Amino acid sequence: MLLFIIILLVFCYWQNEDLVVTKVDYGNQKIDQTFDGFKILQVSDLQNRDFGNQQQRLIDAVKKSQPDIIVITGDLLDSRAENIDAAMGFARAAVDIAPTYFITGNHEAASDQYQLLKNQLTEIGVIIVDNQQVFIEQGDARISLVGVADPLFATVEQLAQEGDYYQQTLDNLLSQGDGSFNIVLAHRPEDFALYVNCGVDLVFCGHAHGGQIRIPLIGGVYAPGQGFWPKYTSGFYCEGNTTMVVSRGLGNSLFPIRIFNRPQLLLLTLRSEDSEG
Ligand SMILES: [Fe+2]
Predict the structure, then answer these.
(1) Of all residues in the chain, what percent are helix, strand and coil, respectively (each to 5)?
(2) Burial class of residue 216, CB neighbours in 10 A (0-12, 13-18, 19+)
(3) What per-residue confidence (pLDDT) applies to 3?
(4) Pair 58, 19: CB distance under 8 Å
(5) pLDDT, tens digit, for every residue of 251-277?
(6) CB atoms inside a 10 Å sphere around CB 99
(7) Distance in Å, CA 25 to ligand 1 centroid
(8) pLDDT for position 163
(9) C-beta atoms surrounding 64 within 10 Å
(10) In which element (H, E) is residue 46 found?
């Protein structure tokens, strides 16, 4: 019995403390040759978690991935955290590695420390793309990068407007583009149908924490916004011309344990041909 408990504890420790870098390729005919091989590292749901020694293990993994850009898809903070030290420790290192883009998640919306985080991220050069569109340029080619703030940031007045505020926001942002390949950063995978409706090419999401406990061959058990047996917890989901990639993320929130669901960094390489990986 003692041996069983020891094995279980070691297994749980490994499942929660190890760090996996998942490498995937994504191809689309809209991607210009110039961007073939362009590497995007997704960091999601850190939840102000400290990976030890001032985030060194996490920072080393990001550095080793040699990304062209880093995208942080929300919940860099945890709403219950009393400081933003671990989040900022990571962000400071990230901007030294590659241009870093950030959108908010529900935990930023719920945190009274978000304004402080926002100020400090801006100060160190993290590009906050909440409800913004920016272009990433290489030679004559460019990619549109659109970020959406977590829906919890919407005001009562915005939500009272006619139509779906979240969809209108994304539609407006995408319509400002020039038809070039678009990448969207949005925290919530449960809104996949909305991303499809808006004509998103590739959207990076987090929030689901991989379903927290993953049952082999079945998938995640629970995800916020989706409940039990969630549909969108990890990897690629495709419909029409839209692909959503969901990171299992790095941290935990209310439920502190991951099983068959090690903390994940997602490294996606763009390919100019039409061959999704
Ligand atoms: Fe979240």
Answers:
(1) 30, 25, 40
(2) exposed
(3) 86
(4) yes
(5) 987 778 888 899 999 999 999 975 444
(6) 16
(7) 25
(8) 77
(9) 12
(10) none
CA distance 224 to 249: 13
As a whole number of Å, the CA-based R_g of the chain is: 18
Kindly give the residue spans of alpha helices, DSSP state H, lying in 18-155: 56-65, 85-97, 106-110, 114-124
From ligand 1's centre to the CA of 224, what distance in Å?
7
Other Cβ atoms less than 10 A from the Cβ of 190: the count is 18
Distance between Cα 259 and ligand 1 center (Å):
18
Residues whose CB falls within 8 Å of the CB of residue 83, separated by 6 or more in sequence, listed in order: 48, 113
Q: Is residue 44 a contact partner of residue 71, using CB atoms and an 8 Å limit?
A: no
Cα distances from 221 to residues 147, 151, 241, in angstroms, run: 28, 24, 28
User: What integer pLDDT is reported at residue 170 of this predicted model?
Assistant: 94
> What's 75's DSSP letter?
-
| Residue 255 pLDDT | 79
Residue 205 Cα to ligand 1 midpoint, Å, equals: 10
Instruction: For residue 62, report the distance from its CA to the centre of ligand 1, in Å.
Output: 21
User: Which residue is listed with tokens 């406990």?
Assistant: 213
Distance of CA 57 to the CA centre of its chain: 19
**What is the edge-to-edge ordering of all strands in the sheet holding 69-73?**
20-27, 264-271, 39-43, 69-73, 100-103, 127-128
Single-letter residue type at 140: D
What is the rounded CA–CA span in Å between residue 238 and residue 277? 11
Domains along the chain with CATH numbers: 20-271 (3.60.21.10)
| Contact status, residue 268 vs residue 245, Cβ threshold 8 Å | yes
**Ligand 1 centre distance from Cα of residue 196 (Å):** 20
Q: In angstroms, rounded to a whole number, what is the distance separating the alpha carbons of residues 103 and 68?
A: 18
Which residue numbers in the chain have pLDDT < 70? 274-277
